Amino acid sequence: MKKVYIETLGCQMNKSDAERMYGMLECLDYTQTENPKEADLLIINTCSIRQLSEDKAYSAIGVWGKWKKESKPDLKIVFAGCVAQQAGENVLKRAPYVDLVLGTQRLYELPELIKRIETGERVVSVDETPFEESDIKINRVKSVNAWIPIMEGCNNFCTYCIVPYTRGRERSRKPELIMSEVKKALSEGFKEITLLGQNVDSYQGGEEGQNLSWLLRQINALDGKFRIRFVTNYPTEITEELINTVIELDKVCEYFHIPMQSGDDYILKKMNRRYDYATYKKICDNLRSRIPDVTITSDFIAGFPGETEEQFENTLKAMSELELDYSNTAAYSPREKTVAAKWVDLYIPEDIKTDRLARLNEHNRACCLKSNQKYLGREIEILVEKFEEDKKVITGRTRNNKIVHVPYDKDITGGFVNVKITGARTWYLNGELV
Ligand code: SAH
Ligand code: SF4
Ligand code: F3S
């Protein structure tokens, strides 16, 4: 048996793709290893959301290339994921030891391509026409949560973002395929299903009415105790129907990830986001008034081209005013091909970007702590995700996605237990079993 190691960078979509690659490769007699040094096949699953993530990909394979040259001439190296989709042939020029460049749209072609590189061929497969998916084996990471992609791609073309170029136009997966994956994951013991997509609310199963709410109802109707989540939502695509569905269905969790990107109307326009601050606020207020304890998290970019100090402060204000429960933050990174990258004259100097990012993070920490303190003294159900034998601590998550650490001496991973919240920290809660 040969061994394969996959290094995954980037978002959950890439993590999910890696589980699919491991599954397909197992059918070609490759077993999974955690040690890249003993692998016969090395795959880097790349992310190009920021320059830093792209640089990470090339530096990782640089090391692999050296191993191949110095001691393992038969080693096969695959460059996959979002950077691959974009860079194509250029990867081979930059890293001549790479055997296969596999674009995101060609994931399901992997078995055929592996057979070709095994005969010594070097292949680039980055055609934008998706390779049709088949019912494949999936080797999921052992955890309580199963990632289930329901759609991929994006039609929004926010001016800073590379994703429409790396993941292509929006495409929804067939409901039959999704349902069969969900049922399989549940039968394997997973206790949480997270539906994945760059814009999950754009889901369209094919027949009229087969939208995200419909899909949630199909999954909710399956037997057993488990939770359902979905990410990511585009602010203005959150419909009344979806809110009603979340309220009505017992398994669907009270959690929305709704990237806002900036709290300033001018910057939002320049980003090509289709809402202003007041609209976003209305969406938040509506969710908070209708769904008790709903968690709302967001993404923000600091130092978008042309952003003034005042505009940046509007973002800080928005974060506090909306009492966002948590936010991912990043300094703006110019991405080739995107519209904003061409506004070189408006680039914000690195030191200012760094300073704004630090202030954004500081603000985020304060918001998180405040959000967590609301739960002090309350009794909440958690789904246990982890047991640390040495510390005698279990870690679980509430329905609204708060992490809780609880002293306990047995591994009850996968179980649902009620806890009383006894402490609130910035990133997590402490609790005790009740
Ligand atoms: N589909 C999701 C997010 C995809 S990318 C959405 O619409 O929000 C994840 C996050 O990366 C984005 O929300 C954004 O905050 C950040 N991001 C994207 N491009 C970026 C860039 N060029 N520089 C810095 N951050 C970026
Ligand atoms: Fe990128 Fe915007 Fe699409 Fe999100 S909605 S993936 S930020 S282009
Ligand atoms: Fe990165 Fe691609 Fe995800 S660019 S964030 S891995 S969709």
Report the major sheet. Answer: 6 strands, parallel
What value does the average pLDDT take? 97
Please indicate the percent range of residues in DSSP E strands (runs of 2 or more).
15-25%
Which ligands accompany this protein?
A: S-adenosyl-L-homocysteine, iron/sulfur cluster, FE3-S4 cluster
Based on the coordinates given, report the CATH architecture of the largest domain.
Alpha-Beta Horseshoe
* Total number of helices: 13
Structural classification: alpha/beta
Strand order of the largest sheet: 2-1-3-4-5-6
What overall form do the CA principal axes indicate? globular
| CATH C-level of the largest domain | Alpha Beta
- The N- and C-terminal alpha carbons lie at a distance of 48 Å
What gyration radius follows from the Cα positions, in whole Å? 22 Å
Give start-end ranges of low-pLDDT stretches.
none
Q: How many β-strand runs?
A: 19
Total individual domains: 3
Determine the CATH topology of the largest domain: pyruvate-formate lyase- activating enzyme
Assigned CATH superfamily of the largest domain: tm_1862 like domain
Percentage of residues assigned to helices: 25-40%
